[in-house]
Design brief:
about 500 residues, 8-stranded mixed sheet, Rossmann fold, alpha+beta, BirA Bifunctional Protein, domain 2, elongated, 5-stranded mixed sheet
């Protein structure tokens, strides 16, 4: 009896059972040992069976899911290119000092931290461990984290690559991000963002352009949305008028929860922070104003009035042509991220309870953190995971996206296999996707495979087809069959008649 064992050094117990070791071969650093063992000896190398699981907040995608997601990505990429936003990429991880402090306290808690290489506890004081000082410990054992969004890495990118880019610099990025958020419907811990940003210009024209970009993408995806927008200066002015400006960041974070916990929930949370009832009432009276003119009358802040003027200027840039989706000014919109300084945006889909599927805004001071002043930026983001979920729920994907595969070459007999391979090569050399069933199985088995795999057409190849230099083309939807030459098959596919 011959036993084949990889890496014998993992199984020292075998040594006692070996009668004679005959051959040792090394291949790609893997030791293969061919040994004779006593017939009565049973070797159990691995009895542990792992239960397959996914980390919370992540998911697998099947081939059909990928087709749908590719449709979304392709649409977004097309519009990014159409609007002149060049693609860049940044690493999945950034230094923690780059990420920390940019997203508020809540954002810092949701950052995935990466343990230092090697013995990460080496050098950590016993005092830190005994006190269970998690914040102090993190600073000692972790220097990197997974990116939380694509905006802060972009600001870092601008500073580090400013000699190689020309302002205003328009960039796009389509990459995954990670947040240690509680998984729920429409909320994942790993998800893709598609961002478009402009750095190096304070022109409010770009706010209008990004609104148009949102409008164009969602029109192309056939997703009806409302684009809600506000201005952080207006929000600052409202909070200042209410006498709460010293707690501006805290108040904006709470207001940002309006769509999650409602008006009464926000009021209760503000009351719990010991804010006066009068201040809270003034706050809500102003954020519930329906018209800019009405808001201007109530506004007691120069900053707030400046924000209203910025909104009016953006609206003037939008007057020249109609929008396909609803644009709604919403004074309750806050956006909890701390780096926004001007216009802010959020996109919601009609007909489904999914939260926002896009968001963004202007940030004037983000590069200053990295030592570069005077580089204003503005950008928007598309939440691909939620867009995908919305389109699935509302059945908005075009029929052709979910249609099955194209051509399966089915070889009826073994002798026809070389001819079938030639057909495959001809089709692929003409940029036609196809597959060859890999063995001479019964025709029924091959047809079952074609049906279950979603092939729309099957090219049958046997002795008769081979002798005539043809294939029998079968329509899997209707069952109709006809014999055609390979050239005719190629021509039909290219003319989209199949």
């Amino acid at each position: 009896m011959i036993l084949y064992v990889t890496n014998i050094y993992n199984y020292p117990f075998i040594q006692d059972k070996i009668r004679d070791s005959s051959i040792l071969l090394e291949n790609n650093r893997q030791i293969w040992v061919f040994i004779n063992i006593r017939p009565t000896f049973e070797v159990k190398l691995n009895t542990n069976i792992l239960k397959p699981t996914l980390p919370k907040g992540t998911r697998d995608f099947l081939p059909l899911d990928i087709k749908k997601r590719d449709f979304i990505f392709t649409t977004i990429r097309h519009h990014f290119k159409l609007f002149g936003y060049d693609a860049i990429e940044t690493p999945a991880m950034e230094s923690l000092e780059t990420l920390m402090g940019k997203y508020g306290d809540e954002g810092d808690r949701l950052l995935f931290k990466i343990l230092n290489n090697g013995d990460y506890l080496q050098g950590v004081s016993d005092d830190l461990l005994e006190r269970k000082d998690s914040q102090g410990l993190i600073r000692q054992i972790s220097k990197r984290g997974l990116r939380y969004d694509l905006t802060v890495p972009f600001a870092r990118f601008i500073v580090m690559n400013r000699q190689n880019i020309k302002f205003p610099f328009k960039r796009s990025a389509i990459q995954p991000v990670w947040r240690a958020d509680k998984p729920q419907k429409g909320r994942y811990q790993e998800f893709y963002q598609c961002d478009a940003d402009v750095a190096g210009s304070s022109s409010l024209y770009y706010e209008a352009e990004l609104i148009r970009l949102y409008d164009g993408v969602f029109k192309a995806l056939n997703v009806p949305v409302v684009i809600r927008w506000n201005n952080r200066k207006v929000l600052y002015g409202i909070i200042e008028t209410a006498g709460l400006v010293d707690e501006f960041q805290l108040v904006t974070v709470v207001i940002d929860k309006l769509d999650k916990i409602g008006k009464e929930g926000v009021k209760a949370e503000l009351m719990a922070k010991n804010f006066s009832e009068d201040s809270i009432n003034i706050l809500f009276d102003m954020i519930e104003c329906n018209h800019l003119e009405e808001l201007m009358i109530s506004m007691k802040s120069e900053t707030g009035l400046k924000g209203i003027e910025e909104i009016k200027e953006v609206m003037r840039h939008l007057e020249s042509s109609p929008m396909h989706n609803m644009l709604k000014l919403d004074a309750t919109l806050a956006r909890g991220l701390g780096y926004y300084t001007g216009c802010i945006f959020e996109v919601n889909a009609f007909g489904v309870n999914m939260g926002s599927i896009g968001g963004g805004g202007r940030y004037d001071n983000l590069t200053e953190i990295f030592g570069l002043k005077g580089v204003s930026g503005v950008g928007i983001s598309f939440g691909v995971e939620r867009i995908y979920d919305v389109m699935n729920e509302l059945q908005l994907f075009p029929k052709e996206v979910s249609q099955g595969k194209g051509i399966l070459i089915s070889c009826i007999d073994t002798e026809s296999f070389p001819y079938s391979i030639q057909i495959v090569d001809q089709l692929r050399s003409n940029n036609i996707a196809c597959e060859l069933y890999p063995e001479g199985a019964k025709l029924q088995k091959q047809m079952s495979f074609a049906n279950e795999s979603g092939f729309l057409r099957v090219a049958l190849v046997g002795d008769n087809e081979r002798s005539q230099g043809k294939v029998t083309l079968k329509n899997m939807e209707t069952g109709n069959q006809e014999m055609v030459t390979v050239e005719e098959l190629i021509s039909r596919i290219k003319e989209h008649s199949l």
